[in-house]
Amino acid sequence: MTDLAAFGATRSDIKARHALLTPESHEWITQPDWPGAEMAWLISPDLGAGLAMGLVRCPDACDAAPASDGIARFVFCLEGALHLTDGTVLEPEGFAFQPAGTGSGLHLPAGARAVVFEWRFMARGSLPDALSGRVQDIAGRALRGDDRLIVQKMLPEDVRFDFEFNIMSFDPGASLAYVETHFMEHGLLMLDGGGVYRLDRDWYPVTAGDAIWMGPHVPQWFGALGRGPSRYLICKNYNRSPMSPR
Predict the structure, then answer these.
(1) Class of domain 31-121
(2) Residues 158, 191, 152, CA angle at the centre, nearest 5°?
């Protein structure tokens, strides 16, 4: 990371319809709604996305304000512990979904790290309840019958949820079955291992800590490399038609 920065280089690559955001280019800032924390917002509507995705680190304890009106939030603990206002404690790989309008805040002790996703919620019937859980408690299923590629779904398969959050786990050498193209967009954070991601006509080596934005209709494919498994956290807008507002 230091060598890249010293020579004005970065692996980050920003294109019109996709982006690779790598740690050596992160800009850490403070924000009034996250006092005591430092934020690196990697994906935002200014990029062309319909969601925001940011990393949070806490040199000091932070009491984060609730999301703005109409905005849903999903938070995933990377290090330390996160405390929800209902008393729930999220340890590493614990997660929480907070629907729009819940008014719930978040306490992060010093040393905690998390990734936060926010988006403008599209209601379909009644709002879903807030929920929390742990990745280790979620049964995995083989994706399209490939037992080398396991998906864990963190939100219920319920049409009231307009986003989906999954953990994708790849054995060494495993890959997506084909190059996907669809009208949904993705935000992604590499958790472990690495491999090669195809986005449009570009091919990117990726490793733990890298983030990706994939816009609608971007051809996309991932293949895992190395001796150990590779995992990433990925979200997509879901239960929406192509004519739904972003």
Answers:
(1) mainly beta
(2) 30
